[in-house]
Write a structure and sequence with these properties.
The chain has 332 residues and is mainly β. The protein has no helices and 30 strands. Strand 22 and strand 23 form a beta hairpin.
């Protein structure tokens, strides 16, 4: 697979084998690498959500061709796992068992991909929920998987018993990003419903909702920091907002530019907040300590990075518009 590196050398950057928009530059102290993950047959992959596999490789969803990819960054080589007829994977996370767990909107199912054999196992949602438009998932401290569906549902799956429960969301359509705080809380956001929600009783699934200060903000993704504060990417407002459950407070910061569109959010181990802005075709890093943004424009237009994840020293995203993965190394 083709790999492209952009290494910041002072205020300049070197580009190898790529034509980039004139605005694309790499800030000093960072290195940006692109991994081409196009399918062997030339068809679109739609590289979407990405997560670390725990051994130096990374999983990524191929939403357009119904696959889960696994890339070795050292070589750029990709192993492709077909998830099934009609698959359209949205989110992927690494479970406590080391396997990849996928929210598959196309098959309306939760999928497990074994880390060693790559065997795929599916658990479909109850028929009465039809097309739930499954989005993202997270494991709680007991090993139960909680997930969202943008059609207006949230649910849980217990791998040990294979028991699944699905509920209608209290305010209808929109459940999207989901996260677990260090304190064990499970929270999700609703894009269409413009709110933050806590699954405050994990036994019954009872939910309480909270409204961010900005009306109609389009809360899309949510991620926790080490203190349990919740960072939210707001699609409609272009803000990144923060809610602290400890005192109930809210803060918000608008991303740079005229009309930002904040899609994804990931908080790294040093509590820096990474977002993507579709309007500027950029990944954006926000430092809460000095309230400053640092932008990393893609070297190609229409990158459309829909979710980020990573490990200490590396931020990763899937350029769904270009069938690539992007890695930003930091802290050097």
């Amino acid at each position: 697979m083709l790999r492209r590196d952009f290494l910041a050398l002072g205020s300049a950057a070197l580009a190898f084998g790529a034509a980039r928009p004139a605005s694309a530059s790499v800030p000093a102290g960072f290195k940006v690498t692109y991994f081409d993950v196009r399918a062997a047959d030339g068809k679109r992959v739609g590289s979407r959500d990405v997560t670390a596999a725990g051994d130096g490789t990374f999983w990524f969803c191929g939403q357009r061709n119904g696959t889960l990819g696994r890339i070795d960054p050292a070589t750029g080589q990709v192993r492709v796992v077909a998830l099934g007829q009609g698959s359209a994977p949205h989110g992927v996370i690494r479970g406590p068992d080391g396997a990849a767990w996928v929210t598959d909107g196309g098959q309306n199912a939760i999928a497990r991909v074994d880390a060693k054999s790559h065997e795929v196992k599916l658990w479909k949602l109850p028929e009465r929920f039809g097309y739930a438009n499954l989005n993202t998932a997270v494991f709680d401290a007991s090993g139960t998987l909680w997930f969202t569906g943008q059609a207006g549902i949230y649910g849980r799956f217990v791998p040990a018993s294979e028991k699944m429960d699905v509920w209608e969301a209290p305010r209808g359509r929109g459940p999207y990003g989901i996260t677990r705080t260090p304190q064990g809380g499970i929270w999700y956001v609703s894009l269409a419903g413009n709110h933050l929600a806590q699954i405050e009783d994990l036994a019954t699934g009872r939910v309480r909702t909270l409204d961010p200060p900005t009306p109609n903000q389009g809360a899309r993704r949510v991620w926790t920091d080490s203190a349990g504060r919740l960072w939210i990417s707001e699609w409609n407002s272009g803000n990144v907002s923060m809610h602290d459950p400890r005192d109930g407070s809210w803060k918000a910061w608008r991303l740079p530019g005229e009309r930002p569109r904040a899609y994804s959010v990931w908080v790294d181990p040093s509590d820096k907040v990474w977002l993507t802005d579709f309007a500027s075709n950029s990944i954006v890093r926000f430092d809460p300590a000095n309230e400053k943004f640092t932008a990393f424009p893609s070297d190609r237009f229409d990158a459309n990075v829909r979710q980020m994840d990573g490990v200490d020293g590396e931020a990763w995203g899937g350029e769904s518009g270009n069938d690539r993965l992007v890695r930003i190394q930091y802290g050097a």
